[in-house]
Every structure is written in structure tokens, then in C-alpha cells.
Amino acid sequence: MVTRAGAGAAVAATAVVALLSAALALYGPPLDAVLGRAFSLRKVHSVKDMENTLQLVRNIIPPLSSTKHKGQDGRIGVVGGCQEYTGAPYFAAISALKVGADLSHVFCASAAAPVIKAYSPELIVHPVLDSPSAVQEVEKWLPRLHALVIGPGLGRDDALLRNVQGILEASKARDIPVVIDADGLWLVAQQPALIQGYQKAVLTPNHMEFSRLYDAVLRGPVDSDDHHGSVLRLSRALGNVTVVQKGERDILSNGQQVLVCSQEGSSRRCGGQGDLLSGALGVLVHWALLAGPEKTNGGMSDLKLTIWGPKIETGVQTRAQGGCGPTTTPTSPHLPLSPSPQVQPSPGGCIRRLLSHQAVQPPSLPEARSLHHHLRHDRRGGGRLQQALR
Ligand SMILES: NC(=O)C1=CN([C@@H]2O[C@H](COP(=O)(O)OP(=O)(O)OC[C@H]3O[C@@H](n4cnc5c(N)ncnc54)[C@H](OP(=O)(O)O)[C@@H]3O)[C@@H](O)[C@H]2O)[C@@H](O)CC1
Ligand SMILES: Nc1ncnc2c1ncn2[C@@H]1O[C@H](COP(=O)(O)OP(=O)(O)OP(=O)(O)O)[C@@H](O)[C@H]1O
Ligand SMILES: [Mg+2]
């Protein structure tokens, strides 16, 4: 049963991964300053660290106010949902709402629409994705959306993928941040140029999706001895889009920095947990952008290669140094490739530690429901994510 604290921690943790992905994607330096304040080398107590992490997240959550109107704090679109998969787009879209977006749209195939509509009256479901005019239908809504989450439950039907390609092009033309997950990544693996250099794209591959994408873009297998370098290389090869490789440790990179979150999460490996993350990320990317650099002190560029979490791992090394990091000397001054396997203490002599996400409890309905009920209640009680994070 998800406790209030557990729910808060789970949501907070997702928020942290989402926030860091957003900050990596959207800003230059120096989130490091904020992180410097938030994390320290001292023996970390998870509650204390989570409190620091929450402060970082709180910086971007827009305050509730009577002067705001519906939709102002987030209108998120999920592009996905087909005959076989109706749960994934629901999980992504409802997570966006529960994290704190005001409106959540799902653009799906007509067969999936009545099913997803039946799941929740809170979602605005458009049965357009398999329509011949799908791109135009979705394009009508783009001026009113703050971010898109492309892929949950999309499936691999060529006609749908072609429509999604057009939707992605139209979104880029409007500078809309996009989170690309699941079979949206299948499309990107087939046509990497679709997001090449679009730095408002955040990719959230799982283990398998990462291997496929890496192989398609870098023409070779992932170097299993160098996860950090692999994520860095893939991000660089795609023009510094942000890549969040989900796994026992989540590894994030924007082609300049690498963040590793290794906080123990749920050991359940059930379907839907990645969908929850992608939906949450859709809102938080928008909020991070809305908050602006002053709220996150700008972002990441001074952030050194940092290994985050209870187990301090070795730093990434260049191959020349016997390590398995990027093969070329990194152009970025931000990546001090340590000659020794020890992690270089980052500025201020501390090796920061990021307590990040505990994977959301298995989304079996009762637990998810209590989580959702809990956040919803907080939302109504005038608290958004902050309330849930207390
Ligand atoms: N309720 C719904 O509507 C849901 C719908 N969903 C939708 O399903 C679609 C496909 O998404 P997906 O994640 O199931 O397929 P994908 O990632 O291609 O993996 C395929 C194979 O790769 C392997 N494999 C996977 N992980 C691995 C690992 N860590 N380490 C090693 N191997 C690993 C594993 O093969 P195995 O090894 O088990 O034979 C797995 O079977 C997508 O659109 C998504 O949105 C889901 O979101 C769930 C909820
Ligand atoms: N082995 C693991 N141990 C702990 N946490 C994990 C592990 N693998 C993934 N996670 C966490 O679970 C969440 C979902 O990751 P997962 O790999 O299940 O995504 P996914 O396959 O896309 O899920 P979905 O079924 O929704 O598509 C992520 O936050 C990730 O950090
Ligand atoms: Mg997935």
C-alpha cells in the first residue's frame, strides 16, 4: 500500500529525474550552484537529502493562485494509444495531471479512444491518430499545448508512425518541448534526423529501447562496460538532445554532463512505470522552462561529471587512460575525465549525491488510485506537488 510519505517520495523522485532532465535539456550552467547547496558529501540521510532535493524541485513548481486561469500551469498532450495499448497513454496522461498539470490531452487511434475515455473523465481524448488528417487535427491543438509526450502505447503501425512524424515536425516548428518514449523511440531509431539537434527533446529509453537507438545512431552495440559514456555518446550523436536511460540506475546526459541516479527504487518490474515517468516529465519540462534560469540558477554547464547516489562509482575515463569513456578528448571543459578510477570531487571538494527517484509503486490500480487520490486531494487542497512532497 503506498503510504503518503512513500507516494510523496516516489513523486518527488520522479520529479527530480524529470527536473534534471529538463534542466539538462533546457539550460546551460549553473544548476551546479543549486545542486551544490542541495547536496553534500556528509553521510547522507535520505530524509534530509530528499528534503534538499525537494527544495530543488519546489523551485520550479508554479504556485497556485486565484489570479490564474485553467490551463495556465500546464496543458500537456500525449501522442499514443492504439488497438493493443490503451494503458500506457492513460498512465502517461493521468500522471501529468496528478503531478499538477491543469489539462491533459491524449491523441490516439480511434479504436483506443473510447477505452481511454472510459478510464477517466479527466482526460481529453482525441480519436485522430489514425485519421488521414491526423497531423492537421493535432496541429490545431499545438498552439494551446505546453509540451508533448510522444510514444506511450503508440505501437509500430507504419501509418500511425508516419502521422506521428508529421506531428513531431509541427511541434519542433513551434519550439514545443517533447518527451519521446516507448514506440516514439522506435520511430526515432528509424529516423534519427527527426530530432537531430532539437535540444527541447528528452528521450526516455528503457534498456532495450536504448540498445536499439544506440545501434541505429552509432552503428554498433552499446559498450556495456561504459554506460555513462554510451549515454553521453548517444546524446552527442543526436545533437545534444537529453537522453534519460532508465534502469537500475537512471543515467542522464545532454552530451556535456552525465548524471547517474542510483537511489534504490521499487523492485517491481511491471508494465507502466516508464509511462508514469514520461507523463510526469512532460509537466516538469514545461515547469522548468516556465520557471526560467533564475529558479534553477541556470542549469548544468558547470556541473562536473558526477556520480550520484549511495555507491560512489568510478568516474568516466578516456579510452587512452584505460577507461572506457568517450574515445575522443571531450570538447566540453565540463567533463573532467579522471585519470584515476576515483571519482573527482567536484568544486568545493564534495562529491554530490543525488537521492532521486524511487520508482513509483507498481501501478496496480488500488495503489495507483491511492497515490492519485492522494495527489488529487492535495491538488484540491490548494497544494500541488508541494503538498505531496511534504
Ligand atoms: N498497459 C499498457 O498499455 C502498456 C503499454 N506499453 C507499450 O508497449 C510497447 C512496447 O513497450 P515494451 O517496453 O513492452 O517493449 P520493449 O521496451 O521494446 O521491450 C521488448 C523486449 O525487450 C526486452 N527487454 C525489455 N526490457 C529489458 C531489460 N531491462 N533488460 C533486458 N531485456 C529487456 C524484453 O524481452 P525479453 O527479454 O523479456 O524476451 C521485452 O519483451 C510500447 O509502445 C509501450 O508504450 C508499455 O508501456 C507497458 C504498459
Ligand atoms: N532494474 C531496476 N531496478 C530499479 N529500478 C528500475 C530498474 N529498471 C528500471 N527501473 C526504474 O523503473 C522506471 C521505469 O523503467 P522501465 O525500464 O520499467 O521503463 P519502461 O520499460 O519504459 O516501462 P513501461 O512498461 O512503462 O514502458 C524508471 O524510473 C527506472 O528508473
Ligand atoms: Mg516504456
UniProtKB/TrEMBL annotation:
SUPFAM superfamilies recorded: Ribokinase-like
Localization per Swiss-Prot or TrEMBL: Mitochondrion
GO cellular component, one term: mitochondrion
Keyword Transmembrane helix: no
Gene Ontology MF annotations: ATP binding; ATP-dependent NAD(P)H-hydrate dehydratase activity
Extent of Low complexity compositional bias: 326-335
EC number(s) reported in the record: 4.2.1.93
GO biological process terms held by the UniProt record: metabolite repair; nicotinamide nucleotide metabolic process
Binding site for (6S)-NADPHX: 153, 206-212, 275
Domain YjeF C-terminal, chain residue ranges per copy: 53-390
Annotated binding of ATP, by residue: 246-250, 265-274
Gene3D superfamilies: 3.40.1190.20
Catalytic activity: (6S)-NADPHX + ATP = ADP + phosphate + NADPH + H(+); (6S)-NADHX + ATP = ADP + phosphate + NADH + H(+)
Keyword annotations: ATP-binding, Lyase, Mitochondrion, NAD, NADP, Nucleotide-binding, Phosphoprotein
Region Disordered, residue ranges: 317-350, 369-390
Necessary cofactors: Mg(2+)
Domain of life of the organism encoding this protein: Eukaryota
Function: Catalyzes the dehydration of the S-form of NAD(P)HX at the expense of ATP, which is converted to ADP. Together with NAD(P)HX epimerase, which catalyzes the epimerization of the S- and R-forms, the enzyme allows the repair of both epimers of NAD(P)HX, a damaged form of NAD(P)H that is a result of enzymatic or heat-dependent hydration.
Entry similarity comment: Belongs to the NnrD/CARKD family.
Identification of the protein by name: ATP-dependent (S)-NAD(P)H-hydrate dehydratase
Species of provenance: Colobus angolensis palliatus (Peters' Angolan colobus)
This protein's encoding gene: CARKD
